[in-house]
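User: Batch of two.

Assistant: Item 1 of 2:
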Amino acid sequence: MLVLRKPYLLFLGDARTPVDAKTALGVAQWCPDDVVGELRFAGAAVSTGMPAMGIAEAVAAGAGSLLIGIAPAGGQLPPHWLPTLFEAVDAGLDIVSGLHTRLNDFPELVRAATAAQVQLHDVRHGAWPRVTGTGRKRAGRRLLTVGTDCALGKKYTALAVTRSLQARGIPATFRATGQTGIMIAGSGVAIDAVVADFIAGAAEHLSPDNAGDHWDVIEGQGSLFHPAYAGVSLGLLHGSQPDALVLCHEPGRTALDALPAFPTPRLADAIDAYLRAGRLTNPAIRCIGISVNSSALDDAQWAAYRDRTGAELGLPVVDPLRGGVEALTAAIVQPEETHHDA
């Protein structure tokens, strides 16, 4: 499992929009105590709100890594960034990148990192565990976020549930399966970069045996209903062996993102499909609730949708940004009162 050296200096380069800098913004939001500051070029239009710092200041403040928190068009590394990366390496910082371009494809940067005894972490391209799944029952408890489609808030929901459980005094750990999640957690497996035969095994490795009252909250990826990513979702589901599922959904999305020929499944059908597939490795799997991205709904529409859907499914329906996820954590604490086993 990849382990990153915190705290971070967030590199924003010449970011122009929040979408460009979503990685840095996510890290600053969810683990601010693991960030010493941000480094921006003159003219950058986006800030995380963290103190502005140069490389030397960040090293003096205890930084362990320069984290590339911006995703330029095409995921390529602009040449004018390289002097900053060399400066960071020479100062003793690891570099963490989620770009499609590999840091390790720059021979001079690799030589500099070797000489400085620091690491270049290509989060998308790690050397992930090549182990097959066993289906062995593991100690501890697990929750997996799943979706009717991609890009619905599975990471955000998992982070919010983890924080809510911890606030209740329940031992819980966020288990990251995507690049931004790994940067937030400081460790994890980029599950969509794992060779297909080893996805379930990597998921088992990510959430090993634990104390009986401990919850691993696992970041979901893709969707069982997506023709491109269903394989990743299924392997993660089997390897995670979840006791609980939270289904993520966006009302009004009638077809899969960028795939108009594939309709979005009904919530009840999606729950049924996930539970049927998940029973292979955990016959006791249950769905505890629905997490909704309700950004397209006004307050009255959201309240009506929440109440109607909750009544139809017999499950709590939440939006982490509109009221939080306490109803989901209550369902974990009182499983006999709120669940769906169909």
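Item 2 of 2:
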Amino acid sequence: MEMRPAKGRALPIATAILRFLVVAVTTYLGLLAVTFFIGRVVPIDPVLAILGDRAPAHVVERVRRELGLDLPLYQQFYIYLRSALSGDFGTSVLTTNPVMTDIRRAFPATMELATFGTVIGSVIGVPLGVLAAVKRGSIIDQVVRVVGLIGYSVPIFWLALISLVIFYARLKWVAFPGRLDIAFEYTFEPITGFYLLDSAWQGQWDVFYDAFRHIILPACLLGYFSLAYISRMTRSFMLNELGQEYVVAARAKGLSETRVIWGHALRNAAVPLVTVIALSYAGLLEGSVLTETVFSWPGIGFYITNSLQNADMNAVLGGTIVIGTVFIAINLLSDLLYRTLDPRTRRK
């Protein structure tokens, strides 16, 4: 008789975990299928990309057979699926390295930039959203909403170019596009691939300062677009919480307005807000392609763009799968975190 409550609690947890795994596997297989068929639809022959347009016909046919491109489409998909699940995305035509090797080198740069941008967006966006909700209808609320609207409306590549003209070409406040000055490129040995973290860990503060001068402008741009989303969602969550009965009760008890807003309303709004910040972070990881291209940032977005321009489809598809996998993982993790933090979403 005493074991039934434990079993009753274990069954919903097991069901939720099973549902989580089914969604993750199904979504990932869908991602692999989409990338596979995109690779077959684009008007780029992978054999000619490897051999060149002047390769003899018999060599082209031999390489096509070696790559399995003469097989039926379902057999090609099976081979592609098996290779992708083992982390083998082929060899890059542009760098002659395994695609996964190039991605391991480029992805930390994207993650560092997206992390910096998310921190900026969260630190500024959350207080702005709270302030806009508390001062609803005031000039402060209107300004915050306009700032967010501009963040959604202005193309990021245009804003990046204008920022370079102002802060680099005119004011000389930031460094040249790239990740490090050439003076440090061949002397600095990164450990994790996160230059700010690695340089601080090694005590190379000249490298840290140089890396900071390179990352600050693109990170602020990404942070601004993250801020637009986070501030809008924070405002919406806070307006909902400020209308709840517990807020009225807290004010009736004589609690200070600061404690009511920051200690009660924001605390309850923080549960869905964690999911919003996680989704914003995932969006910056996958959506920083244009920013990395403008600032010559050697991340995964710049790698994919450069590979696409050189018809290197192995690299393009491999990078797309990695970014898609990270995006799926963060989405599922944020959903799991939301269900964990908010007891109301747990099914009895």
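The chain has a mean pLDDT of 83.
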